[in-house]
Amino acid sequence: MSRENISSHQQHADHSHDSHDHKPRGISRWLFTTNHKDIGTLYLLFSLLMLFTGGILAMMIRAELFQPGLQFVDPHFFNQLTTVHGLVMVFGAVMPAFVGLANWMIPLMIGAPDMALPRMNNWSFWILPFAFTILLSTFFMEGGAPAAGWTFYAPLSTTYSSDSTAFFVFSVHLMGISSIMGAMNVIVTIFNLRAPGMTWMKLPLFVWTWLITAFLLIAVMPVLAGVVTMVLTDKYFGTSFFDAAGGGDPVMFQHIFWFFGHPEVYIMILPAFGIVSSIIPTFARKPLFGYESMVIATASIALLSFIVWAHHMFTTGMPVAAELFFMYATMLIAVPTGVKVFNWVATMWRGAMTFEVPMMFALAFIVLFTIGGLSGLMLAIVPADFQYHDTYFVVAHFHYVLVTGAVFGIISGVYYWIPKWTGVMYSEKIGQLHFWCSIISVNMLFFPMHFVGLAGMPRRIPDYALQFADMNAFISIGGFLFGLSQLIFVWMVVRCMRGKGEKATDRVWEGAQGLEWEVPSPAPYHTFQTPPQVK
Amino acid sequence: MKIDHERYYVPEQSVWPIVGAISLFTIGIGAALLVNDLAKDQHGAGGYLLIIGLALLCYMLFGWFKNVIDESMAGLYSSQMDRSFRQGMSWFIFSEVMFFGAFFGALFYARIISVPWLDGAGNNVMTGEILWPDFEAIWPLEKTPGGLETNAMPWEGIPLYNTLILLASSITLQIAHIGIENNKHTQLGFFMMLTIVLGVLFLSLQGYEYMHAYNDLGLRLDSGVYGNTFFLLTGFHGLHVTLGTLFLLIIFLRILIKGHFTPERHFGFQAAAWYWHFVDVVWLNLFVFVYVL
Amino acid sequence: MKHCPSSLRFVRYLLIVVFFSFAQQLFALEAKYNMTSGVTDISGQVYNLHMIIFYICCAIAAIVFGLMFWSILHHRKSKGAAPAQFHGSLKIEIIWTAIPVLILIAMAIPASKTLIAMEDTSEADLTVLITGSQWKWHYKYLEYPIEFYSLLATPREAINNQAEKTDLYLRDVDKPLVLPTGKKIRFLVTADDVIHSWWVPAFAVKKDANPGFINETWTKVDKPGIYRGQCAELCGKDHAFMPIVVDVRSPEDFDQWVAQELERQAQEKAAELARGNLTMDELMSLGQKTYETHCAACHQISGEGLPGVIPALKGSIMATTDIPAHIQIVVNGKAGTAMQAFAKQLTNSELAAVITYERNAWGNNTGELVQAADIAAVKAGE
Ligand code: HEA
Ligand code: HEA
Ligand code: CUA
Ligand SMILES: [Cu+2]
């Protein structure tokens, strides 16, 4: 499984073709492209834009919550902010970022010339900007954007929602189509385009985690499409899936939604596991500990994720037997996740570590994700969840796993691979500044949420009782600082994209292993047109 | 492992994806406007946008597939490429299975959980006693808790015939497949045509059944959860049969007019056939769980 | 210890003082920033469970992060560490799979016990039907002919920062739920419109109120007092503004309250009957008050509604033409929309007043009066 002895004798042949490496020019390059690197770049930039869009909504939420009383927005608009913040971050920022990384890195890692279905790849991407145009345009409609939470529980999202519901539903359909096609592409690429000798157990973990993620995506995105369709017909065509008077049940919505929703949260973390599993060995200069167990653990997490969904619904009045079952199943997920964490620590153990920015973010990921995971475990304990549910304790949990988990994973991946993409090293000074600003402010932002949640502050409220005031002010300040810190990140990215900075070597990192480091930096427009032989 | 060394065909730039994205955008906005207008009994631009979007989508599919066919005919595709298409199609069908899964899930939930609970089963004794004292849980739900009445669709008659028709169509398609593999063109042509005719017959009977439901049985889309699941499941299935029939028709025309496909290479045919069998299997489930049981 | 110098004794003294004042601070902090241990046996169990898992998680975190930081400190290249090359061990993988499983089992046992106790609603002494609706709670005692709505008591001005916010800001209601101590009380929880969730932290009771279904839960409080909570499921615009207050009294005080309540109800009924027709001014002032507590949350004080969500009343056809149709919709609500039936929430004279108000406010100057008798007529015509 040692990945050092990958031969690169085919590389030179490859480079000599680079004369025909002409890139189409102008806007049409981006509109009509079939190149996985272009499409990867598009995805990543789109995701950055959405991170900022969702971030601005979050800043408005934090501004409103800075003090008790209604300050800037009315309650109905506040609910729209919360809802769209969640939707934009989940479907616009995190998921496309992972697809972008997959596009860039998977072909490079497995020695493929491109993604398996390049035109469909472009289609998957270009659906997204249109889908989000529809979603965000609802802010300007009569009645405003969807306001029932990103989980849009019926009947608040059906009978009691505004006219923009149909726009929301169709935009979710588009996002679903996009992710399903993106996932199909990833799976087929991995199954079919591996270079000769790149056997399953030699695949980098990023490829493995993405393979499993893609499977989850194809399995659950259609279920989301189904449930939004039921919301549509309940609202507009008089069906009563979620209406007791017609024999349906509002809780049925939650079952179907969370059957999608829980695997969805692992969709947002598994690729980050893959990124971290690539970075830790590089900077510890030591092979990943327990490769096989990492693969097995990832697959177990994915399988378990299909039978835990009702842990979001402990207060809905399920029978005790169901509550017990879902509690036990949920707790079990801590085991494979623990295996991953332990393997990372064991990889660092007795390594020779250095602490460049990607490593810093990866280390922060491990610590802060584990904190988020442990609070997840607390949420799984049903009697305690009766107290935690729908409070800021939950908000704290999922921002730890999502922001300091998924987003930090993405950021560390960007620092790790950006020299390969742009051909220049990012500035270590700027990067370290970004890291330290982020790590301090993000904990100011999300750590105190545990306390206000435990003390009884519900989520999704624009106004709160006076005992929560000082903490909320503190949280908001942390929020603004964290937002500002991300401007440093943009500064770093822009610098690299404009080619400012030291020229990067092909291998970039002393300890880096794998095919992606065999090609020049920046990676030429076409790579591995003839597959390399992996020994 | 020798084939892996063939060059994998990476297409040049293409306009079709962005056309496709714009068409979906137009469809999305058009449909959203239309749905709101319908609910308020208004008339607006929604319907037109929807039609424009659909037309654009057809145009895109036509152009895109034309490219693919031309490339395939030009011999640009390796067997590795063929595998990509096959695997892609299989995963697409898997995603469709999950889509139907959501609606079957709703059906089972209603039958096993929500309807009995409304009558006081499980931990919902008080639900039945206080909120819906007159309600009785009987499936098919001919009287909803809210008091709306309707009639169930019996499985004898049209649904049974339709089951037989679809089963037969799967067999005829299989015979056509054997035809293509043995390069027997008349067998292929005849049985494909038969399959398409059976598909159209199925759809016509389904349409007739819907009219019967609305006019005679008072079974409507909004007749409570029985009507909901009935129409959405059979409706989405019908939509898939329609698409499958069109798909087969196009393949048929390609065979008839262009003489495409060889015994060795006929992915297009294969994909249409998989799709058709999948639609068939969905129907069998429907027949059992929606009509019979 | 006998001969420690005075300076040391002083330090010791200081340490003790610091410790105690700190501990006190800690308790204060704990009350403010931790889960409450509540006032029932169950809430105490839940609190203990919470603290146990919390400590276990801390221990796990300490070990994992400890090892990690140890290697960060010692196994760094700058210290000349040479990387080892081991990359796996089945034995160790099995160990760190098995140990977490054992820890989880240890957590699951007490959790299951508490859960089963929490879900056992049998043998209750008193049953209260709790109904949530946008944005108020309704309580109905199944053993007594008592039922009432409970609404937020914080004035709008305080919310809009135009008046001082008191200690009970957003936590007070006009009429709390009153319960006796020492009795097992069963709650039947449901909703009229969207999903709400009835949550009182001090009882560790949180149950979703699902429209069309009834969930059950229970509590038994031993300590009299006033306990506060709030709606815990997003239920639309004013989700933040539907608090819950439970006033727990000794059984004697509770019985007394019941008697009072019955008497008050009888008086009100008599007054309602005796009232007869009201003048325009009386109708308008009663109507305005009723409108602002029951209708303005959706239709707005200005009567303009929320475009695209809630229809306007100002200048609307409904509020300016056919009177019976107007009465009909207010009394029975409109199925499939957010408009609820107000028949059981308001008295006939309140209904008459509010309809009169809607027909004459905001420039809807129809000049028409609606009287309680008109309401009764529409109700009877049903
Ligand atoms: C990336 C996203 C992500 C991830 C990875 C997780 C991971 C987990 N989540 Fe989380 N969760 C969310 C995103 C995520 N969650 C979101 C978005 C919501 C809210 C949705 C909404 O309502 O809007 C939510 C809500 C949520 C709830 C519902 C709370 C409520 O509403 O009442 C629950 C309850 O069980 C839960 C549990 C868990 C558990 C047990 C894990 C586990 O996978 C965690 C496992 C990890 C560890 C446990 C740490 C590492 C392990 C070790 C160091 C080993 C040793 C440990 C032990 C033996 C304990 N989550
Ligand atoms: C991956 C997903 C993701 C990410 C990255 C975030 C990031 C953030 N979230 Fe998000 N959040 C969710 C997913 C996510 N969230 C979800 C799913 C919900 C639940 C929704 C629901 O209840 O339905 C939620 C809910 C939620 C709430 C609860 C709202 C409520 O219950 O009413 C809050 C409150 O503070 C919050 C805050 C933040 C903040 C401050 C950030 C920050 O990390 C954002 C930082 C980024 C930026 C700020 C952008 C970059 C910088 C600029 C734009 C420059 C300008 C900066 C300034 C003006 C300072 N989030
Ligand atoms: Cu009622 Cu929230
Ligand atoms: Cu979950």
Automatic annotation (TrEMBL), chain A:
Q: Which family does it belong to?
A: Belongs to the heme-copper respiratory oxidase family.
Question: Chief location of this protein?
Answer: membrane
Q: Which SUPFAM superfamilies has this protein been placed in?
A: Cytochrome c oxidase subunit I-like
- The name this protein carries in UniProt is Cytochrome c oxidase subunit 1
Give the source's domain of life in one word: Bacteria
Q: What segment(s) does the record annotate as region Disordered?
A: 1-23
Where does the record place it? Cell membrane; Membrane
Regions that span the bilayer = 42-63, 83-104, 125-145, 165-193, 205-232, 265-283, 295-314, 326-349, 361-382, 394-418, 430-453, 473-494
Query: What membrane topology was assigned to this protein in its record?
Result: Multi-pass membrane protein
Q: Sorted alphabetically, which keywords does the UniProt record give? A: Cell membrane, Copper, Electron transport, Heme, Iron, Membrane, Metal-binding, Respiratory chain, Translocase, Transmembrane, Transmembrane helix, Transport
Q: Which residues form the Cytochrome oxidase subunit I profile domain?
A: 30-535
Pathway(s) where this gene product acts:
Energy metabolism; oxidative phosphorylation
